[in-house]
Design brief:
The complex is a heterodimer of chains A (112) and B (112). By secondary structure, chain A is an all-beta fold. In chain A, 0% of the residues lie in helices and 53% in strands. Chain A contains no helices and eleven strands. The radius of gyration of chain A is 14 Å and the shape is globular. The relative contact order of chain A is 0.34. Chain B is globular, with a radius of gyration of 13 Å. With 112 residues, chain B is mostly beta strands. Chain B starts with a strand and ends with a strand. The model of chain B has no long low-confidence stretch (mean pLDDT 94). In chain B, a hairpin with a 3-residue loop joins strand 4 and strand 5. Classes of the chains: A mainly beta (112), B mainly beta (112). At the A-B interface, strand 5 of A face strand 4, strand 5 and strand 10 of B.
């Protein structure tokens, strides 16, 4: 079983729609969680951190459910520019270094 | 802004060649990481370093080595490139109590 699992998608949604992604993690000791965004042929970039009960940033809301070991990302009023791959990330893996575990990503395609 | 740079965006090498991928960060980060990213497999950690001259194996170190002679620079070496090492290589860094990793633009390596 992968340590961080995501539905690869693709999620095809019309502009203006609300879309939600879920991600499950297996290591209950993971302390921090993030959502990264990766555009096609570009590097991943941090979208949001999810440290405790959740986080909201404009149209984006991230939730953490420690009891069920899942993280979600909600995007409201989708824009064409939201089309990208969204990576669920957990960490650290332990030890002195800040190693992170990346999910394989969920592809979102927002259509006009 | 954190800046992580990689020596090449695209690289084509022949089987058996020795390949050097360079990564430089300008934020005085202690930790540096090398990943490869392949479709369907996501980001996989090859090696990481938490200090100058210190290195640890990641999940897929076979066929790779690394060097960190200066804090800002972390090199990935393919001793004898093989076709199964064709991939996108991403360098990242972080430091202190900050778990978020900052990525370079990536090097797309093709081994023929």
């Amino acid at each position: 079983r992968k340590e961080v699992e995501q539905d690869p998608g693709p999620f095809n949604v019309p502009e203006g729609a609300t879309v939600a992604f879920n991600c499950t993690y297996s290591n209950s000791a993971s302390q921090s969680f993030f959502w990264y965004r990766q555009d096609c042929r570009k590097e991943p970039k941090l979208l949001m951190s999810v440290y405790s009960s959740g986080n909201e940033d404009g149209r984006f809301t991230a939730q953490l459910n420690r009891a069920s070991q899942y993280i979600s990302l909600l995007i409201r009023d989708s824009k064409l520019s939201d089309s990208a791959t969204y990576l669920c990330v957990g960490g650290p893996r332990g030890g002195a270094t800040n190693k992170l575990i990346f999910g394989t990503g969920t592809l979102l395609a927002v259509q006009p | 802004d954190v800046k992580v740079t990689q020596s090449s965006r695209y690289l084509v090498k022949r089987t058996g060649e020795k390949v050097f991928l360079e990564c430089v960060q300008d934020m005085d980060h202690e930790n540096m990481f090398w990943y490869r990213q392949d479709p369907g497999l996501g980001l996989r950690l090859i090696y990481f370093s938490y200090d100058v001259k210190m290195k640890e194996k990641g999940d897929i170190p076979e066929g790779y080595s690394v060097s960190r002679e200066k804090k800002e620079r972390f090199s990935l070496i393919l001793e004898s490139a093989s076709t199964n090492q064709t991939s996108m290589y991403l360098c990242a860094s972080n430091g202190g109590d900050v778990y978020e990793q900052y990525f370079g633009p990536g090097t797309r390596l093709t081994v023929t």
